Amino acid sequence: MTSEFDRPYRGGFVGGQHRFALTVYFEDTDTAGIVYYANYLKFMERARSDMIRACDIDLAAELRSSGRTYAVAEVAIKYRKPGYLYDDLVVVSTVEQVRAVSVTIQQTVMRKAEILADATVTAAFLTSDQRPQRQPIEWVERFRQIADMGK
C-alpha cells in the first residue's frame, strides 16, 4: 500500500517562476548548524533539474538515448545571509536567456522573504563527447515561453 508520503516532492511554476521548496537537514550544515556554502549550489541544481522536468523535458531519456545533456558552464553566486538547520527554504528559478546551445537561469534561495543566496547559472547543451550542440528546438521554445511568462 502506498500513501501520499511515498511520492517525491515536485516543485512547479507560478507564472514565469519555478518554485522548489526544501528543508535544511543536518547533512547540509557545518557543526554550527549553518548551511555549508557549496550546498546552496546543490539546492539550486535540484531546483533546475526539477524545473527542466516540469517543462516536460525528459533529460534522463535524452541522456540514455543520445548521451546529450546539460552541463553548467558558468555560475555567478552571491551569498547574502546564512541558512540554518531545519530552515524551510524555497529556490526560485527564472529563465533569463535562451540561446541555441545554452540557457541562463536566475536562481534565488529564500527563507520566507529573506534572500539567502542568488546566482546566475548558464547551462550549455552538450553532445556525448562534451561538445556544445544546439538544443532541441522544442526545448528552446519551452524555455522561451517560460521566460516570456516572467516578463
From TrEMBL:
Alphabetized, the UniProt keywords read:
Hydrolase
In terms of CDD domains, this protein maps to: 4HBT (cd00586)
Pfam families linked: 4HBT
Q: What Gene3D superfamilies does this protein's entry cite?
A: Hotdog Thioesterase
Q: What positions does the domain Thioesterase occupy?
A: 33-112
SUPFAM superfamilies xref list? Thioesterase/thiol ester dehydrase-isomerase
Q: Does the keyword Hydrolase apply?
A: yes
Family according to the record = Belongs to the 4-hydroxybenzoyl-CoA thioesterase family.
Q: What is this protein called?
A: Acyl-CoA thioesterase
Organism for this UniProt entry: Sphingomonas anseongensis
Q: Cite the source lineage.
A: Bacteria, Pseudomonadati, Pseudomonadota, Alphaproteobacteria, Sphingomonadales
